[in-house]
Amino acid sequence: DLSWANVGRHPLGAEHVGHSKATTLAAKLQLSYPHAEIRGFDLCYEEFLSKEAQLLAEADLIVCATADWEMESLLNLQRVCGEIISPILYTWTEPHACAGHAVLLPSASPCLQCGMTLQGEAREAITKWRRDTETRSEPACGAVFQPYGPIELQGTISMAASLVLDSLLGKIQQPIHRVWASPHALLVEAGGDWSDTWRNGHLEREKGGILEDLAWEKDSLCQV
Predict the structure, then answer these.
(1) pLDDT number for residue 56
(2) Which residues have a Cβ under 8 Å from the Cβ of 72 and sit 6 or more positions away?
(3) 3-class SS of residue 3
(4) Minimal CA–CA distance to 136: which of 152, 125, 148, 127?
(5) Cα(88)–Cα(122) distance, integer angstroms
(6) pLDDT for 132
(7) CA distances (Å), 100 to each of 27, 67, 125, 127, in order?
(8) For 125-181, how does the pLDDT look when each residue is reduced to its tens digit (9 = 90+)?
(9) What is the reported pLDDT for 135?
């Protein structure tokens, strides 16, 4: 459900606090685009599989933006085992939305795990952070959060959306890893820096504000 903490960086506004994000956003989009059929499901992934498996079977593309490694791992395993044949696009941000990733996997190999650690972190991170800068605490309540909003998110959203369109229009049919790196000033202000693997002799990456297409390679020792 939408909470007050979500309002600053969610398409739904304060009038929808307490309502299901999925079904409420679907209803809002349906009003805006009446020529389309848009459905929302207030279900966890396991429930969705048991009730709506046919939708996954018929999908032209699955976009996974959950930031839930357990769920992403299950989806990846289903793809590798042949239970799902649709191409899958996974997308996520690094801390403070200072970098973003979108990985399009048209086939079962390479799989998502090929480029990830067992803890669900990208092996080739773009940014690095001191332990005390990744999150902040709200006074008195003990809640932790990352202070960024829709402006910082736009780079990742645009990148992922462009890759969705490239896939649906048949422009890309091979595994690809598209990344967005924010302007370096934004990264420094948030308390981070570029990772050594991202710099790695690429002077053109120092200023940031760039988008790159990288390879997503098969790992012969992949656990999946």
Answers:
(1) 86
(2) 64, 66, 90, 112, 120
(3) coil
(4) 148
(5) 17
(6) 65
(7) 28, 12, 10, 10
(8) 999 998 765 555 555 444 544 666 788 889 999 999 999 999 999 999 899 999 999
(9) 55
Q: How far apart are CA 23 and CA 171, in angstroms?
A: 31
Kindly state the tokens that stand for 97: 């939305």
Spell out where the chain has E strands: 62-64, 88-93, 99-105, 127-129, 136-137, 144-145, 176-183, 192-194, 208-214
Contact 109, 166 (CB under 8 A): no
Provide the whole-model pTM: 0.90
The alpha-helical segments, DSSP class H, found in 6-110 are: 21-32, 45-58, 69-80
Picking from 178, 153, 154, the residue whose alpha carbon sits closest to that of residue 165 is 178
Encode pLDDT of 84-121 as tens digits.
999 999 999 999 999 999 999 999 999 999 999 999 99
Return d(Cα 213, Cα 127) in angstroms, integer: 17
Letter string b/e over residues 192-217, b meaning 16 or more CB atoms within 10 A of that residue's CB: bbbbeebeeeeeebeebeeeeeeebe
Query: Residue 223 CA to chain centroid, in angstroms?
Result: 22
User: Which is it for strands 62-64 and 88-93: parallel, antiparallel or unpaired?
Assistant: parallel
Distance CA 155, CA 181 (A): 8
* Of 134, 65, 41, the residue nearest 94 (C-alpha): 134
Residue 153 CB neighbours (<10 A): 14
Longest dimension (CA), the chain: 51
